[in-house]
């Protein structure tokens, strides 16, 4: 018989007395928040290191990039060019060891100075 945290007197029954009720917790296959339930389950592919979906991660990364650009005083400008122009810009940027974005900015500033 058990009569305290450290005191055990008598013998404990080895066999449970019937009827025994067993509580089984349901686990939802899509619930990945309780990882211990799925510790023994093998899943294909590389292990998931981030609880967010790839789409959510991309959105957060893009938002963070825009915040960093704003702090640096940069504004986003979109530009569509043909392949030949992009190839020429890439070659010139590589030759000068700068990014294509930096090269385009330099070229635009030079042209603006000439016009002013």
Automatic annotation (TrEMBL):
Single biological process term from Gene Ontology: regulation of DNA-templated transcription
A Pfam family matched in the record: RHH_1
Give the InterPro entries listed for this entry: CopG
Identify the residues that the record assigns to the Ribbon-helix-helix protein CopG domain, covering every copy. 75-114
Name the NCBIfam families on file.
PRK11675.1
Annotated protein name in UniProt: Ribbon-helix-helix protein, CopG family
